[in-house]
Amino acid sequence: MMEHSFKLAIQYAANAESAAFPTRSQFRRWVKLALEQEAEIVIRIVEKSEGRALNHDYRGKNYATNVLTFVYDDTDPLSGDIVLCAEVIENEARQQHKALMAHYAHLTVHGLLHLQGYDHVSDDEATIMEKKEIHILTRLGFEDPYIASCEALTLG
């Protein structure tokens, strides 16, 4: 697999009261494996209020979601933002019995794939995207996030 150069800025705009955030080096490692082209990316970790405002303003949904992706330029270099909502991610990890860093890795990879044009609107698109996520996360040393969430649902 060819390595692509990238510029990455991390913005920690949320308080880490109950859990830790991924480090810059963790984010760099995750981005490095998920990128298929040169890119300039900002990853921003936000509070629930900012996540809700962004989701409302850009998607018309009045709740905070785990990850939002904003593409500014889809040519070389690719340019965009990935917004991760700390409280939502922490709650999901706890509810799904997942390690917090594994869930952050999954959602970062998920956002990066959206940034590169992948989507999950149709079943076929979802299958392609999930297979890519699983492949990347396995290479990073994480379990299949979809098996873990299915197990959590049947246990809960």
Q: Could you characterize what this model shows?
A:
The chain has 156 residues and is α/β, with parallel strands linked by helices. It has one domain (6-155): Collagenase (Catalytic Domain), CATH 3.40.390. It has helices at residues 24-34, 48-59, 86-95, 100-115, 123-139, 145-155; strands at 6-13, 39-46, 67-73, 78-85.
Shape: globular
Count of spatially separate domains: 1
Helix content estimate: 40-55%
Q: CATH H-level name... which superfamily?
A: Metalloproteases ("zincins"), catalytic domain
Any idea of the CATH class? Answer: Alpha Beta
> Structural class of the secondary elements?
alpha/beta
Number of strands: 4
User: Count the helices. How many?
Assistant: 6
Radius of gyration: 15 Å
End-to-end CA span: 39 Å
Order of helices and strands: EHEHEEHHHH
Function: Single strand-specific metallo-endoribonuclease involved in late-stage 70S ribosome quality control and in maturation of the 3' terminus of the 16S rRNA.
Protein name: Endoribonuclease YbeY
Family: Belongs to the endoribonuclease YbeY family.
EC number: 3.1.-.-
Write out key terms for the chains shown:
single chain; 156 residues; alpha/beta; Collagenase (Catalytic Domain); four-stranded mixed sheet; 20% strand; disordered C terminus; MetalPrtase_cat_dom_sf_prd; metalloendopeptidase activity; Endoribonuclease YbeY
